[in-house]
Every structure is written in structure tokens, then in C-alpha cells.
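Write out the 3D structure for:
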Amino acid sequence: MKVIKIEAFGGPEMLSLTTVPAPVAKENEVLINVESCGVGGVDILLRKGLYPGLDNAGFIPGMEIVGIVNSVGANVSEEWISKRVYAMTTLGGYAEQVVVNESALVEVPEKLLSDQALSLGINALVAYYSLQRARLSEGERVYVRGAGGGIGSLTVQLALANKYEVSVAPTAALQRGKLQHLGVRNFIDLSQWEGDDQKFDAIIDPVAGSELAQYIALLKDNGVYVLNGVAAGFPNADFGMEFLKRFQSSLTITCFSLNSISADDIRSSLSQIFHLAVDGQITPYVSKVLPFEEAVEAHRLLESQTVFGKIVLKI
């Protein structure tokens, strides 16, 4: 079968189309014929060699797929066969066929396209659980960094659905137009920020990077900072000093990863999210669908930061 491998750490050109033996479903596993695989920020980190615990190249990236169940292993119901499913993978998603544990499967509703399901997937789950950890109440203020990105745009939608007051940074015209269409009214330029009366109850941050520390000043007393990604790289080593400087404000910083959520909870939450999309309460944005063989271009496009929504590779 065809796969995309990271042959060496570096730029998009390190992605290589090659062939490997097809996998076989073992006990508690299913074999999926992949229709589409998602391209996300974590794939960029993997390709650059920045993902913790992966020190050697030569692996297949890709953390989420949608496809049709081809076969099942022992202890798995044959009722799964021929169903269209979404699954998170432990790497290996850039492939024509993927084997996953049955516990990873979420059936995709008929009214939801494969590309739309992928545009939700990991991004929507991270947004959903991050907002839970922010402990917001109706009417409270949340600032979303990277609001034009996959996680950010879904955080905005879910926050608005919960009737929180949402603010974002000024952004490119395309992204700003999309965000305004979703209902965002507050675009805040930090260079013109006027102080305490504009502070936030929570900040959701999938960006991180060297600028993280300056956002801490935007939190109210008892505010919550949820760090759920590092799209701009890891923050400076001393960023925590900004929290300590505001010791008397009783701020909370929490890091969030889906790895901390049980498979049962993920299946239940994602099923709810899929049905929110089917009911029109949130909108799955697909920025670009590219042929599987154009993974290099997909990575270049994602890193250009000119897209709004998910980039998908179609097999």
C-alpha cells in the first residue's frame, strides 16, 4: 500500500511517497480503507523532530483518518464492516490502509462528509475539553489565540454556542471575515490594550511560542490559562515567572492533551460534536482538499498560515 513517510527531520520536502506491506487486523483491531487523512499542526512538529519522545525519522505521520472498515480481528463485531468511521491513530494516518483498536472508532453520520468529519475531529475535541477546563459561565470573557486555526476556530464556535463573550486578535482579512460570520465581534490589538477593564476570565492558547508570557497580563484575578498546543513552538523557559509575579491574583495555568482523556469519553464527546455539526450548531470548515500524493504541498500550505479550517489529504 502507499504511505507518506518522514524520511528525515526538516522541511516539507522530507515527506516521501513510498510503499509498505499492507497491515492486518489482529485481536481487538479493525482494518480501515482510508478515504481521507487530516493534516494538522502536530504533523508539522513530527516532521521537524520537535515532538517529545520521537527522536528518529522514518515513520508515517498522521493522527486522524476517515474511512470504511474493511475487516475486523478477533473479538470485534463484524457489524463494523463497511461502516464509515473516524479514528484517531497513534501515528500512521498518512496511508491507504490503517489498523486501529476498536475503541478508537466513531461512526460518522451519513449527513457529514468525510472531509467535514476530519475538520472537526481532534481540533473540536481539544477545543471542547479546553473550554471545560476554563470553567467559564455564560457571559464571561474568553480570549482565543490562533482563532483562525483549526483548534482556535472551533474553540470560538463552541464558546459562542455556550454564550461566552469571545475576543480574538486582529487577523488576516480572510480569517477575520470568517470569524465575523461566526459571530465574533471583539478583535483586540494588544498594542492598544487599555488595561484592567478589558481583562479575561480565561485564555485558550493553541499557539504558545515566545509571546506567551505577555498574554498572562490579560487575565482577571482567578483567571484560567489553558495551553493546548504549540503551533508557534514552545514558550520561553522562564514564562512561568509571569504567573509568579501575579501570585496574589490566584491564576491557574493548565496544559491539555487528548492523551489524558479515556477512549470512551472521546467517543462520546466526538459523537456529540458530529451531531452538533449535522444540526447546524457548529460549522466544519475545510480549507483545502489535496490528493494524497501532494502531502508536501499540504504541509507548506498549513505552515503558510493563510488557511482557515482543515487541510485534508484525499486518497
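The chain has a mean pLDDT of 93.
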